[in-house]
Design a protein that fits this description.
By secondary structure, the chain is α/β, with parallel strands linked by helices. The chain is built from 24 helices and 24 strands. A 5-stranded parallel sheet has the order 2-1-3-4-5. A 5-stranded mixed sheet has the order 14-16-17-19-18, with helices on one face. It has a 5-stranded parallel sheet with strand order 21-20-22-23-24, with helices on both faces.
Length: 750
């Protein structure tokens, strides 16, 4: 039972709450589907939307069609008395004159003591309504004066204004108000008259034949003289169609029916304003305490088609005018379609952009792949060339060492007066020097030459190399060296940097056969050192410039170059993590720009340049380790001639045994690197571990171990490249022997 009771209570509670809600009756003068009335009702409903739907009662008197029909009005009294005896309202909203007149006439019978809020009133003045008890509201105001002023503004040349009304009590009430205003606007040349007695046919014909200088102002038409109902929806559009002049009105709902415009009252806003007053009454404010609003709000409103039809420019309209019916843009008519199409276009655009970016990435990847393939091809070329160079260099340099060595030794035995033989022997030595240089370039290009990188001040190296470079060019070439004031230190093998400069200077010399200017300059930035070599020579075409770094490519005649100079340069620069650029055009010279990473460390001492060393005499036992018998013979002959005693070994194993046997007498070891059984690198390490103070000189024409140069420098071991001259060999061995005083002392001759 408790559950049933709770359920019943729950179901009944909303109904009880609704029962406590106030009731509002809206009594309309006219009928539903009448535009003015529908807009009024909509405004009231929106403002009172908080009420339960069944507590807002809306009645329609249909007074426009049942004009001044007393029998009909009596029936309404009986019907409302019966109905609202059961549902008495707490407040009544009346719209337009007929409803208010009906309520005031039958208030005592139907709705005693119920407050009334009116709207849309034209037939009575504020002075007449203010004394009425328990009543307040909004007068419509019938803005005749405002519309006549508007017509005067827009049609200054008009000769007549015709006010349209009818003979009903409502119509005549409007006419009476209008006649009070007319004298203020009539003047010479402008006559204002009222048409209120006509049939619909007569009105149609009279409007169609009106003078061009006339303007119409519609007050209100409910029925014609014959009692025919005037429908604004049915009869107004044909009337405005035949009118050769504008027709203005005061009610906003008539826009779109052919009316040009006017100072208009919006029925929706009018109804909403009345409902706001009704809410105040429902909240407890007495109706008598709420002042009457003496006029509704009238705003200038116009129909775009009417303005266009009669050539009324919009810039002549009053400020704040509203123009309705303006042709909308395609976007306004099809906003959703435009947004949908735009979304599709944007999506397609994004898709195209995405695809384009993919294509760009693919093309970039293809270019990168092509570059990588080119780098791989070049690396493979270098590898093949390196293997070839390495395979040839060892034996080739041994041959050159033997040839140049025996030629040098033979020249010592040539009689002083035998100039021909001496010249022939010197030519042999020059040929071996050129062959050795070609081998060095080949090994540098293939990156098979051992290097000893150190911090080098490019300024100091350039100044130190100036005299040597001067000898490479003819007297017709002006050589200018421009070091920078700031330290310009880089990490590189100084010998290879000298080789870069020498090759570039030789190329510049060959490009200026008739002389010119050769400038070597150094510039330093925060991150790089720029070495620039510029000449005023013949320059290069783009075709030649594109191939200058290719190995064995040359534009020189046969015998003037092997095409390895620039290929060697780029290999050296890239090994030092630098870049090289060239700027050249025919007839405008050539400029090479080499950029190397700058370091901020103290530079190492530069090695002395090779020079002809006079024969030095020495003494003591020297162990020569060399697998090539001809090179051993050259070394033995050179050292023996200079006073040294020589032991020979053809591999590292034999050398270790001889060093053990003659440790006390041994003053120096001269060893090759590439040998069978036990190579020179391993031999050096074993000798150092067993004989740490024993001077060692390493000789080689090719070293396949790039770390050997660094290790030799760390162990303070001297190195001489093949091919070498006997005097150069004796000099470096003597320096090594003298570097260890304890062994050098016993090595000196008595």
């Amino acid at each position: 039972m408790l559950v049933v009771h709770l359920c019943v209570a729950g179901l009944c509670q909303p109904r009880a709450a609704h029962a406590d809600a106030p009731r509002v009756l809206m009594l309309n003068s006219y009928h539903p589907q009448y535009a003015w009335t529908d807009a009024l009702v909509r405004g009231v409903q929106e403002e009172l939307s908080y009420l339960p739907a069944e507590h807002l009662f809306i009645e329609f008197m249909d007074a426009r069609r049942m004009v001044d029909d007393d029998a009909y009005l009596k029936l309404l009294v009986d019907a409302y008395a019966h109905k609202y005896r059961r549902f008495p309202p707490d407040v009544i909203i009346s719209s337009d004159d007929s409803a208010l007149e009906f309520l005031l006439a039958h208030r005592t019978t139907l709705f005693p003591d119920v407050p009334i809020v009116f709207c849309g009133i034209n037939s009575r003045t504020a002075a007449e309504l203010e004394p009425v008890p328990n009543t307040t509201g909004i007068l419509e105001g019938l803005e005749v004066a405002g519309n006549l002023a508007l017509i005067e503004r827009l049609h200054p040349n008009a000769t007549k204004v015709v006010l349209l009304a009818d003979r009903t009590s409502l119509g005549q009430g409007m006419v009476r108000i209008a006649r009070q205003v007319i004298p203020r606007f009539e003047r010479e040349g402008l006559r204002i008259e009222v048409w209120d007695d006509f049939t619909l046919t007569e009105l149609h014909d009279r409007v169609a034949r009106i003078d061009p200088g006339t303007v119409f102002l519609l007050l209100a038409i409910h029925e014609d003289r014959a009692g025919h109902y005037f429908s604004y929806d049915e009869h107004l559009p044909p009337l405005t169609d035949v009118s050769p002049v504008p027709i203005y009105a005061m009610f906003g709902m008539l826009l779109g029916q052919g009316i040009t415009g006017g100072a208009m009252n919006d029925p929706h806003d009018h109804g909403r304003a009345a409902a706001v007053i009704a809410r105040r009454v429902l909240s407890g404010t007495p109706a008598d305490a709420i002042p009457l609003v003496k006029s509704a709000e009238y705003l200038p409103r116009f129909d775009y088609a009417g303005l266009e039809r009669f050539g009324i420019p919009e810039d002549r309209l009053p400020e704040g005018s509203v123009v309705v019916g303006r042709p909308t843009s395609f976007y306004e008519d099809h906003t959703r379609l435009v947004w949908a199409v735009s979304a599709v276009i944007v999506s397609l655009g994004l898709a195209v952009f995405w695809l384009a970016s993919i294509v760009r990435r693919m093309r970039r990847a293809e270019r990168e792949l092509a570059n990588k393939q080119e780098e791989l091809r070049r690396a493979q070329q270098l590898e093949v060339l390196g293997r070839l160079a390495g395979g040839v260099a060892h034996d080739f340099n041994n041959l050159m060492t033997a040839i140049s060595g025996f030629a040098a030794l033979a020249s010592r035995r040539v009689a002083a007066n035998d100039e021909v033989l001496r010249d022939d022997l010197e030519e042999i030595q020059h040929a071996t020097e050129r062959a050795a240089e070609l081998t060095r370039q080949l090994l540098s290009f293939a990156r098979r030459q051992p290097i000893q990188t150190r911090v080098v001040d490019v300024n100091a190296l350039l100044v130190n190399l100036h005299k040597l470079l001067r000898r490479l060019v003819s007297e017709a070439v002006e050589l200018v060296v421009l070091p920078t004031k700031d330290p310009a230190c880089v990490r590189i093998d100084p010998g290879q940097l000298e080789q870069v400069l020498s090759n570039l200077v030789v190329n510049a010399r060959d490009a200026m056969p008739s002389g010119g200017k050769l400038t070597l300059s150094v510039k330093a930035s925060e991150t790089h050192v720029l070495l620039e070599v510029s000449d005023t020579g013949v320059g290069m075409t783009d075709v030649v410039k594109a191939r200058i770094f290719e190995p064995f490519f040359t534009t020189k005649e046969v015998g003037r170059g092997a095409g390895l100079g620039l290929a060697t340069i780029i290999a050296i620069v890239e090994r030092a993590r630098g870049t090289i650029d060239v700027d050249s055009s025919p007839g405008h010279g050539t400029t090479f720009e080499i950029r190397l990473p700058r370091v901020f460390e103290s530079p190492a001492e530069l090695p002395a340049h090779p020079h002809r060393t006079p024969v030095r005499m020495g003494g003591g036992l020297v162990l020569v380790v060399e697998d090539d018998p001809q090179v051993r013979r050259v070394a033995r002959a050179a050292l023996t001639h200079s006073g040294y005693e020589v032991l020979e070994a053809d591999n590292g194993v034999v050398a270790l045994e001889l060093a053990r046997q003659h440790d006390s007498r041994l003053r120096c070891v001269l060893t090759d690197v590439v040998m069978p059984i036990l190579g020179g690198g391993e031999l050096v390490r074993k000798l150092r571990s067993k004989h740490p103070d024993l001077p060692i000189v390493v000789m080689s024409g090719y070293v396949d171990d790039p770390s050997l140069g660094t290790e030799l420098a760390r162990l303070d071991i001297r190195f001489i490249s093949k091919p070498f001259l006997p005097d150069e060999l004796v000099a470096i061995v003597s320096d090594a022997v003298e570097s260890v005083p304890s062994r050098a002392q016993s090595a000196r001759p008595a």
